[in-house]
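// run 5 | inverse folding | seed 20
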């Protein structure tokens, strides 16, 4: 595997990435409790960021707040104050900002940030995220991912952070942009795609989202990084040994 350049990555990324934090029936996804648990377990974690109406960065997977708060609302149509005052995650905590997550983490573990664009706001979103990351000293400890290559190009051209292009069955068209970015972040079912397999011979590939040990066994030695969720703590050792980087 010497022909793949791993030097620009934080080694801990290759030992498992907790999807939306280490969440479970006690801790909500993308909440500070789930991120603190990931940090406690020394796990890199992934999160999602949206831009509010007043251009603040809120951490949440969906644009709609209904699923995670049981209350109607759209992040991009609300101010940060509206969200903080009127919405709670199902475990009772407020939706965190990206600043709050970075302050909690203090660069203790790597963070994978997914840029969630909305109606053409890719440049503003990327610019605000970049501004938020100015305090990061170890640039290897942050990587940026997105289904929107336009948002990622902002960071790809700056070359401060690694960038991963997200690929799923519904968005195979954006594989055309794969060579502009550090790595591919692919849906589990796409590992046999010819373009993905060809890319994997030269660059890093992450797979998402692994939810059980059977799925994990199927990707062993085929990928570099694994994004997972809903695995028990006693199974994390297997996640940390799953990537080909740590086997070969």
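// decoded
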């Amino acid at each position: 595997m010497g022909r793949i350049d791993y030097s620009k990555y934080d080694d801990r990324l290759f030992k498992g990435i907790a999807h939306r934090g280490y969440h479970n029936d006690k801790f909500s996804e993308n909440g500070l409790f789930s991120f603190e648990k990931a940090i406690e377990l020394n796990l890199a974690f992934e999160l999602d960021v949206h831009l509010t109406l007043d251009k603040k960065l809120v951490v949440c997977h969906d644009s709609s707040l209904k699923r995670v708060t049981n209350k109607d609302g759209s992040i991009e149509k609300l101010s940060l104050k509206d969200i903080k005052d009127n919405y709670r995650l199902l475990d009772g905590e407020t939706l965190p900002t990206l600043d709050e997550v970075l302050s909690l983490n203090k660069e203790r573990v790597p963070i994978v940030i997914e840029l969630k664009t909305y109606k053409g706001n890719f440049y503003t979103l990327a610019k605000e995220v970049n501004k938020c990351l100015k305090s990061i000293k170890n640039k290897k400890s942050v990587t940026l991912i997105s289904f929107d290559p336009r948002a990622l190009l902002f960071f790809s051209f700056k070359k401060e952070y690694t960038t991963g292009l997200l690929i799923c069955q519904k968005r195979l068209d954006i594989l055309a942009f794969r060579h502009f970015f550090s790595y591919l972040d692919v849906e589990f079912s796409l590992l046999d795609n010819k373009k993905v397999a060809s890319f994997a011979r030269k660059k890093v590939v992450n797979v998402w989202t692994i939810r059980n040990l059977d799925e994990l066994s199927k990707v062993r030695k085929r990928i570099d990084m694994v994004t997972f969720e809903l695995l028990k703590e006693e199974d994390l050792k297997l996640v940390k040994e799953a990537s080909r980087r740590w086997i070969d």
